[in-house]
Amino acid sequence: MNILQAALLGLVQGLTEFLPVSSTGHLILAQHLMGFKDPMLAFDIIVHLGTLMAVCLYYAKDLRAITADVWSFLWNFFVKKDRRYLASEFPGALTAGLVIAASIPTALIGFAFQDSFERMFGSLTGVGVIWILFGVLLVLSGKFQDGTRGLYEMNQRDAFWIGLAQAVSIIPSISRSGATILTAMLLGIERRDAAKFSLLISIPAVAGAALLKLKDGMDLLEASPHALAAGFVASAASGYITIIFLVRFLKQGSFPRFGFYCVAAGIVSLLVGFFL
Fold it and tell me: Is 40 helix (H, G, I), strand (E, B) or coil?
C-alpha cells in the first residue's frame, strides 16, 4: 500500500464512520476495488484511531466538563460524604454513567461474537445483502416521530438499548452511528442529542476494539509507517469535518436519503463480488 492509497482509504473511513452508511462496508469495498483482498488489520486500527481522535477533538469541551463533573461527584460522594442532589449538581457524571451503561452490552457482545460476525458477513456478498437490508430500515425511519427528550433525560434502560444497537453494528455494513441514532430516536431522544450520545459512546467502543486488535496487528505496524500516518491523518481530518456536517444535517435532514444510498451501495457490492 502506498501513501496515496492509504490517504484515500483514510478519507473513506473518515467520511463514512459517522454517517449512517457503514464505514466497514465502504472499507471492505474500497480495499477490494484497490486489489487488497486480505484483511489489513493494522491499517484498520490506525484509521479507526484517526476517527476516534476526531470525536475527541470535536467534543473536547464536553469531555473536559464530563471529566470535571465525574471528579467532583466522586469527591463529594466518597470524601465529603455529601450525597444530596449529586446527580442534578453534576450532570456530566450522569452522562458518564450512561456511556458506561451503553458500553457494557457493546463490550460483552463484541468480545464474544465479533470474530464470528466478521467471518460470517465479511465477504462482499454478505456485506451487500446486509447493506441493502440496513438501507431499507433507514428508508423506513422517515416515519419515525422526532423525539422530545434530551441527553440529561435519558436513563440506564435507554443507554442499555442504545449500547445493544452499537453491539449489533459489529456486523459489517451495519452502520454503528446509524444503528445507535435510530435506536435513540425510537426511544424518544431528540435526534441531535441522539447523535451526540452516539458519538460519545463511540469513544470507549472504538478504543476498546483497537486495543483488542492491536496485539494481532502489532507485527504489521512497521510495514509502511508513512502509509499508516497518511491514513491516520486523512481519517482524522475527514472524520472531524463529517461530524460537523452530521450535527448540522440533523437539525433538518432525515435518514431516508442515506437509506437509498445504502441500498445502491449494497447492489454495487453484490455486483463487484459477483464479477470480480
Answer: coil
- Total residues found in the chain within this entry: 276
User: pLDDT tens digit string along 156-208?
Assistant: 999 999 999 999 888 877 889 989 999 998 999 988 899 999 999 999 988 88
Of the candidates 137, 128, 177, which has an alpha carbon nearest to the alpha carbon of residue 25? 128
Choose among 42, 172, 164: nearest CA to 116. Answer: 172
Spell out the residues 6+ positions from residue 197 whose beta carbon is closer than 8 angstroms to its own: 98, 99, 102, 151, 154, 162, 180, 184, 189
For the chain, the domain total comes to 1
Task: Give the contacts of 14 (CB within 8 A, at least 6 positions apart).
Answer: 47, 50, 51, 54, 234, 235, 236, 237, 238, 239, 240, 241, 242
Query: Pseudo-torsion of CA 197, 91, 57, 221, nearest 10°?
Result: -70
What are the residues facing 149 on neighbouring strands?
Answer: 189
Q: How far apart are CA 137 and CA 263, in angstroms?
A: 10
Q: Write out the three cell numbers for 228.
A: 499508516
Q: Which three cell numbers stand for residue 90?
A: 453534576
Task: Residue 125: give the domain boundaries.
Answer: 3-275
What is the 8-class DSSP label of residue 78?
Answer: I
Strand partners, 189: 149
pTM over 0.90: no
Distance in angstroms between the alpha carbons of the first and the last residue of the chain? 20
Separation CA 124–CA 270 (nearest Å): 6
